């Protein structure tokens, strides 16, 4: 599922853009941010493959260009270096900055034409970032951390937290529902029980009869839950 971020301070305008986006990609995970800080948090916590950003996010501030500031910051993050950004604004002055310095995909002026936006979104969604899906981001005590997905063997619940098992390490992160993790880490991860997802690239051996998995780099045998076995088989295929 595509992750799409709409950065717009006016809720009505944001919902209107979301409606247009869903006409082109109904299955997308659409996130809405109303200001610079919220936009940065969502971008770091989620996998975003397209951004629609209003230049002005604070109308109370004279000559505000918070949207451009957001894109400038996000371009400094490897995974967002080339992700398509569509700037939406009624201002003409930022056009050259947006295109030349921030490598924006397109520039839509208000009041915008719905068919024009749909056409631009359609083209932008064809792009696949070379940095997509490399890292998983999570937040703990107000700090955002990242883990390389290809270094994760499996993730399991541990009381009120989650244990992320790596080749030579283990990390504890705040609780996240296993089903949510399974979706966010697709297609390399598959759920094997109510409490665990495993990286398919590290599966060494599967014993369907006794319902367990042997994982490379780990002495632990992961249990395949009775209720999860059919979905697990489908995920492996």
What does this protein look like?
The chain has 237 residues and is α/β, with parallel strands linked by helices. Helices cover 28% and strands 32% of the residues. The chain has a five-stranded parallel beta sheet with strand order 2-1-3-4-5, sandwiched between helices. The chain has a five-stranded antiparallel beta sheet with strand order 10-9-8-12-11. The protein has a three-stranded antiparallel beta sheet with strand order 13-14-15, with no helix packed on it. The longest helix is centred in the first third of the chain and has 14 residues. The chain is elongated and about 65 Å long.
| Category by helix and strand content | alpha/beta
Described by the principal axes of the CA atoms, the overall outline is: elongated
Strand content bin: 25-35%
The CATH homologous superfamily of the largest domain is called Response regulator
Keywords:
single chain; 237 residues; alpha/beta; Rossmann fold; OB fold (Dihydrolipoamide Acetyltransferase, E2P); 2 domains; five-stranded parallel beta sheet; five-stranded antiparallel beta sheet; 28% helix
């Amino acid at each position: 599922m595509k992750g799409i971020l709409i950065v717009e301070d006016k809720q009505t305008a944001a919902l209107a853009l979301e409606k247009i986006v869903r006409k082109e990609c109904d299955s997308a995970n659409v996130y809405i941010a109303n200001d610079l800080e919220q936009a940065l948090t969502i971008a770091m916590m989620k996998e975003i493959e397209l951004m629609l950003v209003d230049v002005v996010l604070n109308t109370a501030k004279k000559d505000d260009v918070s949207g451009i500031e957001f894109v400038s910051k996000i371009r400094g993050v490897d995974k967002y270096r080339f992700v398509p950004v569509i700037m939406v604004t009624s201002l003409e002055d930022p056009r050259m900055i947006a295109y030349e310095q921030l490598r924006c995909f397109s520039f839509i002026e208000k009041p915008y034409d719905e068919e024009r936006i749909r056409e631009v979104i359609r083209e932008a969604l064809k792009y696949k970032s070379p940095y997509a899906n490399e890292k998983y981001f999570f937040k703990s005590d107000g700090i955002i951390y990242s883990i390389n997905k290809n270094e994760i063997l499996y993730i399991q619940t541990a009381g009120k937290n989650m244990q992320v098992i790596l080749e030579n390490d283990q990390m504890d992160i705040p609780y996240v529902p296993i089903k949510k993790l399974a979706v966010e880490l697709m297609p390399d991860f598959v759920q094997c029980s109510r409490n665990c997802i495993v990286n398919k690239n590290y599966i060494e051996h599967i014993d369907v009869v006794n319902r367990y998995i042997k994982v490379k780099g780990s002495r632990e045998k992961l249990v395949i839950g009775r209720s999860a076995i059919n979905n697990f088989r489908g995920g492996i295929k």
